[in-house]
Amino acid sequence: MGSAKEVAANEPEEHLSRALGAGDPATRLRHAQAGLRNSDDLDADMRFLLLRQAYLAHVALHQLHGAVETTEAMIETGVMLDVAYTDQSRALAAMGRTERAIEAQRASARNAPTARRSFQLWSLATLQHFAGEGDAALKTIARALRFAGPDRPLIKAHRAYIALDLGTIVSELETIRRELAASPSGQGYGQFLLGMIAHLLGDQPKATVHLQAFLRRNASIDETKRLTLREELRRARLALAEFSSQ
Q1: Residue 18: partners with Cβ closer than 8 Å, 6 or more residues away
Q2: What is the mean pLDDT of the chain?
C-alpha cells in the first residue's frame, strides 16, 4: 500500500495543481494526461479543467491537431461550452480551417451565458470580418452590442473599423475614438482598433503610434495569446510596412 504522499501524487486534483504550476508545456501536458488516465471516475468539472490544461499545452507545443481533438473532449463534458467552442475555433482558424472555425465560434456564442455573450459574439464578428464576410460581421457585432457592458466602447470601435474597411461612412467617429481611448481597453486591444481606424482614414502618424504600441504590448505574449491575435498582429505589421514603403 502506497504512502499518503504517493496516493496524493496520483490524485487528479494533484495533477491539475501541478499542470497549472508547470514551467513548460511538456510538463503541463504530462500532468494533465496523468490526471485524465482514470477519467471515467472524474466529475465533469475536473475532467474539463484537466482537458483545458492539455489543450493549452498542445497549443504551446504547436500541436494544433491535438488541440482540436482535446476540445472535442472538452465539449463532451458539457462544462463551459462557450469556452470549449472558442478554444476549438481558435485552433481551427490557426490551421486555416476558417469555415469550421466560424461554425465553432457561432456555437460558442449560442452557448455563452449572458455575461460572456457580448465577448463571444464579438469574437465571431472578428472571425467573419477577417474571413471577408463583412456584412455578416456587422450584423453579428450589432448583436454583441445588445449584451455589452464595460466593453461597449471597444465593440463600438470595432464595428466602426469593420464599417470603414467596407468603405462605409461612420457617423460620430470621433466620439467613438475618444470613448475607446478613454476606456481601460483603450490601452490593450483598443490600440489595434485605434491604429487600424487611423490607417483606414489615412492618418499615418496616429496609426503608427497606436499600432506600434499594440505590437510592443504583445511582443512577449505566450503562444495561446499569439494564436488568438495572429491576424491582428499580421494586419498591424502590414499597415506599418505600407507606411515605411511610401
Answers
A1: 27, 31
A2: 93
Show the cell assigned to 55: 489543450
In this structure, are residues 44 and 78 in contact, taking their beta carbons and an 8 Å threshold? yes
**How many other C-beta atoms lie within 10 A of the C-beta of residue 101?**
23
Three cell numbers at 9?
501524487
Q: Comparing C-alpha atoms, which of 47, 50, 121 is closest to residue 82?
A: 121
Residue 6: predicted pLDDT: 43
pLDDT of residue 39: 64
The whole-number average pLDDT for the span 2-16 is 65
Tens-place pLDDT, residues 163-177: 999 999 999 999 999
Which DSSP state fits 39? G
Task: Determine the length of the chain.
Answer: 246
CA distance 108 to 110: 5
How far CA 159 is from CA of 81, 171, 210, in Å, comes to 26, 11, 18
Q: Which grid coordinates are listed for 8?
A: 496524493
Residues 6+ apart with CB under 8 A from 68: 88, 91, 92, 95
Helix (H) or strand (E) segment spanning residue 103:
helix 98-111
Measure Cα distances from 238 to 7, 105, 125, 134, 199 in Å.
Answer: 54, 26, 21, 20, 11
43: number of Cβ within 10 Å: 10
| Rounded Cα distance, 83 and 71, in Å | 9
The answer to whether 128 and 140 are in contact (CB under 8 A) is: yes
